[in-house]
Amino acid sequence: MGVVRKTKSVDLLLDQFKSGSEAISVIELVDRLSSKLNKTTIYRVLNNLEDDGVLHSFLGVNSLKWYAKCSGCSKTKHSDIHPHFQCTVCGKVDCLPVKMTIPEIPTHDVKSIQVLINGACTNCRA
Amino acid sequence: MGVVRKTKSVDLLLDQFKSGSEAISVIELVDRLSSKLNKTTIYRVLNNLEDDGVLHSFLGVNSLKWYAKCSGCSKTKHSDIHPHFQCTVCGKVDCLPVKMTIPEIPTHDVKSIQVLINGACTNCRA
DNA sequence: TTTGTTATTGCAACTGAGTTCTAATAAATT
DNA sequence: AATTTATTAGAACTCAGTTGCAATAACAAA
User: Fold this and answer.
1) What is the share, in percent, of chain A residues with pLDDT greater than 90?
2) What domains are defined for chain A?
């Protein structure tokens, strides 16, 4: 599928991801936009934007779904592989600008890899 | 807390993890043991066994919770860090016997790391 | 062995993130 | 302006995981 039409929903959601490499949970997005967009719409548009290679998603702690901007991805190829860092103090999630290489596992045919790192972020570490 | 008493529930659950390095989802465990144990009990005992360093848990695709045996962990120290491999064909999850080093991130204070690899397992790759 | 203490269990009801269905709406094309 | 069809809102639903409480069973002390 993917996004085909320019709609208010798409604009509003893309606005949220304009700045920085910070990820946003769907729960947070629903909360921020609840007066303007329906929950179902948010889930669907995010899904479309991921199909288009505009955003990527992953699971944080408590199995909540998070989204962040992709860089260098397209409808056909998702090449933006990097670790995600979730702060155990404030809960925020960053995309780490660290190059990840997919490891060679002789016994398995590796397709993708997800790395979630936990600890204290820049602001929260004492 | 952790497990203090030897009960039927603990024995039944530990039996499931006797062989191999294969992880088992909670859903699967509830399914296997539903005639013998209550769902709530299963969730609670698994949680205790994790506190004790006997099992470790992680999230697979669809944010389902999985458990697998720990090796070399105790009530106070969880040192068994390794990637988990989930097959996109059959859905099974293996603990990979690969040593993982926690990366140095200058800007963040890293505490733990979770790696989920996707692809085709030994049985499912063509 | 019996009694008392308290961890553990079963059950029912609940929670909440994410999904599904359908009718109404609004892009985009003619 | 009319037509087509993707998109949206809303309500209802799904289901993994949790909570509260009364009943039960492991274990220790007598």
Assistant:
1) 75
2) 8-119 (1.10.10.10)
Residue A51 · residue A107 · CB < 8 Å: no
Q: Which tokens sit at B69?
A: 């045996």
B42 and B26 Cβ atoms separated by less than 8 Å: yes
The shortest CB-CB distance from A114 to any of B88, B98, B116 is to B116
- Tokens for B119? 């692809």
Q: Over the stretch B51-64, which tens digit does the pLDDT of each residue have?
A: 999 999 999 999 99
CB pairs under 8 A between A and B: 95
Cβ–Cβ under 8 Å, residues B60 and B121: no
Q: Does B18 touch chain A (CB under 8 A)?
A: no
Contacts of B117 in chain A (CB under 8 A): 102-103, 105, 108, 110, 112-114
- Tell me the chain B residues in contact with residue A105 when contact means C-beta distances shorter than 8 Å: 85, 96, 98, 117
Using CA atoms, how far apart are residues B54 and B47, in angstroms rounded to an integer? 10
For residue A125, name the pLDDT band (cuts at 50, 70, 90).
confident
State percent of chain A over pLDDT 70: 97
Amino acid A76 reads T
Is A109 in Cβ contact with B119 (below 8 Å)? Answer: yes
Mean pLDDT of B2-22: 89
What is d(CA B95, CA B82) in angstroms, rounded to the nearest whole number? Answer: 7
